[in-house]
Amino acid sequence: MRRLGALMLCMAALLGGCGDGVDARRIERAAPGEWLSNGRTYGEQRYSPLAQITPANVGRLGLAWEAALESYDFGIEATPLVADGRLYVTSTWSRVFAFDAETGKRLWAFDPEVPREWLRQGCCKAVNRGVALWKDKVYVGAFDGRLIALDARTGRQVWSADTTGRKPQYTITGAPRVVKGKVIIGNGGGDFGTRGYISAYDADTGKLAWRFYIVPKDPRTPQEHPELDAAVKTWDPNRDWSVGGGGNAWDSMSYDPDLDLLYVGTGNGGPYDPRRRNPGGGDSLYLSSILALRPDTGRLAWHYQTTPGDQWDFTATANMVLAEVEIGGRPRKVLMQAPKNGFFYVLDRATGELLSAEKYVRTTWAARVDLKTGRPVRAAAADYTKGRALLFPSPYGGHNWQPMAFSPKTGLVYIPAQDLGWVWDPTSPTWFYRGADGSTLAPAEAAQGPRGRLIAWNPRTGRPAWTIDLPEPMNGGVLATAGGLVVQGTADGDIHLREATTGRLLRRIQVGTGVVAAPISYRIRGVQYLAVAAGWNGVRPAPDTPGAPAPFANDGRLIVLKLDGGKVPVAARRPPPGPLMTGAGPQPPDLVARGRGLYLANCARCHGFAGERGPFPDLRRMRPETLEAFDGIVLGGAYRAGGMASFADLLKPEDTRAIKAYLVDRAARDAGAAGLATRP
Fold it and tell me: What is the pLDDT of residues 501-510, one digit of tens each?
């Protein structure tokens, strides 16, 4: 009976080769009922051909099932995959869950047991964007750099490969892809100045097949592959080669089986400041680039650099959509990307020829992209090393990692965008460059404030078909369907269902938990489902605001909807925060000033620039006993099991004394204590 049930599921989903597991044929043909790869197909369009749910019946949508993902306020970024009646999704700390896709019954869970102190090695919490499927295995990249193969039916580990050598400041948060029997995985760490690369492993054995380094090493030693001989000419030969340079491919990949080209988006320069990274100037290949690689060998077919000499954290790691679009009066096989830098690129995916590059959000660092040279025409103020500058977009990007979607039915690309500027300061000591006064809200934005947008972009005309403003900047990825819908979760805890041609809001489903992950759609026994992983992770531009925008708990959960389902539960509200520290008395101004710089340089990326951010403790609200134990925590590693590693390699007792003075002073000022009116 179990075998008969499995066969019926295969037939219902219109699958081929069900008994053989997921292979290239199944991913390429993309049966409508399944979601077998991160963007559903190799082309990463995030378009579902299912049409049971339509604008006419979205009012009937309700809960099919939901499941806890145990993320503990860190947020969920994963795209679920569905194959053979099973749904696979990841949570924080690279944990993997398998559910019955029809009933929501948990089938198994896997925890790679990432050491919690590894949290310090990453920029943006121990999140994960999903798994890959191939034959009878599930593949996940672990936060500490391992690539792990699991048995798809049991969740048992089959093999594990250390992709980063346990080197500090390397992490994996992106979803692997499997192409021609090779598991492709990149890494993060460019913000810390690591040297980025992308690797391919044999899907059966875990043996390394090839590795492509994105930036060169010291030219006094031979480069690992010939493409780096060309790249090294774009770097200062006298630079400090102990600084890796960045370029890490931490997210996006696509694949064209006909051209046999694997497309990889590469990351930002690290450190951002070119005076430290590449003082002699130059394009710094292959930072912020789209690479077309041969998946058998890892050799480069072509590249296109979106941001030469990147110094603004303008990664090209946003998802890349492959489609056939009419450009210049004739159909072209194109690659489309809306990277952080504010320009929407359309490239010929066979040759890398630039076909179009237009601003999709407010963009001031460059006036335009020259179609003849393919290079941006920089604005005079773009080089902040010569003076403080307000630039758009910010390092958070006009579009960040949250996936956009393309509908072949409407011909539109749906971009989860944001309008947000940044004050860059050449003297700032912070991890992210900010104004010397610590401001994150630029004066030019004060009237309207930072905001999110959902943009329906027409790649044929290089213009938006429609634009919707959203109150919070960083919202969820997007799904487009053949039923004429655009589905997106929002930072303030809703799921929006819009009409695809006009953007008209058809239905708002409140879930409470903020959403940044992208929805998917699948079908079981003739029933279409919409699934989205809720749990907000991101950044907010305004100081003194908690990490998750909505006043609801941010515990991750998978929410699955269907027509005529039940009531969708709303998350519980957050408990009120504890009191601010106010009783320690005035602190020496010089010590407070020094402590502020140390705090911004060492603590702010987790605990927030104003002291309050998401799952990490608000240090302005420490209890007296915690303040007393501060050195034991920060220097002694007393809380390492919870993710707070020791900083004894960077800080000394005199430094922690200054940081404490700053936090006590900041808490008193924020609470309206004496001296507030006279202090700057």
Answer: 999 999 999 9
Percent of the chain with pLDDT over 70: 90
Enumerate the active-site residues: 313
Instruction: Tell me which DSSP letter residue 401 carries.
Output: S
Under CATH, to which class is 589-670 assigned?
mainly alpha
DSSP structural state of residue 642 = G
Element (H, E) at 665: helix 653-670
14-56 tens-digit pLDDT: 433 344 699 999 999 889 999 999 999 999 999 999 999 999 9
Q: Tell how far CA 45 is from the center of its chain.
A: 17
From the list 51, 33, 63, 32, the residue with the least C-alpha distance to 563 is 63
Could you tell me which of 79, 71, 56 has the C-alpha nearest to residue 499?
56
Domain boundaries, the chain: 589-670
Question: CA-CA distances (angstroms) from residue 623 to 74, 408, 581, 605, 608?
Answer: 23, 56, 8, 22, 18
How far is the C-alpha of 50 from the C-alpha of 528, rounded, in Å?
A: 7
d(CA 401, CA 417): 10
Q: Output the six-digit token pair for 341.
A: 């830098």
Tokens of 16: 């081929």
Distance from chain centroid for Cα 76: 10
321 SS3 class: strand
The pLDDT of residue 642 is 81
Mean pLDDT, all residues of the chain: 90
